[in-house]
Structure formats: C-alpha cells, structure tokens
What we know:
By secondary structure, the protein is mostly beta strands. The chain has strands at 4-10, 18-24, 33-39, 42-43, 47-49, 55-61, 71-78, 94-100. It has one domain: Immunoglobulin-like (Sandwich).
Amino acid sequence: MTKRVTVRLGGPLDAGQRLHLTGFRPPGVNGPVTMKVSVDSRALPPVALPRDELGFELAFPLPAEAAGRPAIEVSIEVDRTVRAPGDKRELGLGFGTLEIR
Length: 101
C-alpha cells in the first residue's frame, strides 16, 4: 500500500464481528510504525507496530452501526513510508488479508 489506502468490504453480519488485518513491513520501513484505521470515516484506535516485528496480525472492533450494512469503507494510513530506488510512490505496508469475521 501507499501511505494511505481505502478499500470497500462487505459489511459485518453482526456487531460481534471484527476487522482482521495481516501483513508485513517491507524492507526499508524502519522503526515503529503507527497505523490508523477508520471505518466509514469513524476512527478506530491507532496501533503502534513494534520496530522489531516484520509481520503482523491485528483485529479491530467494528462500530456497532456497521452491522448489517451491505458494504463498509475501510481506510488505512501509516506514518512511516519508504521509496524504492526509481519509484516515486511512498510505500507503507504490505497486506495479505483484510477481512471481516
């Protein structure tokens, strides 16, 4: 992902479901990384990814009003990025899974 990304996912079936994210920190993104996640423009608690962990698995509670909606918009932003040689994009984190369960 770049510094910020927005995706649309099928909404949760009930209020007990959570947003699950798995991914990794690419080479060159050093130090702690703070990830901010929002669902339908509602901010969830930010997460600090430790500097010594490359991979991550996170789960976020979803706003109760999201339950039963056909779709939700999830935005993710990080405070630390890197640029690969010859690439003008600011790259943040790589994701393996973004799902609601």
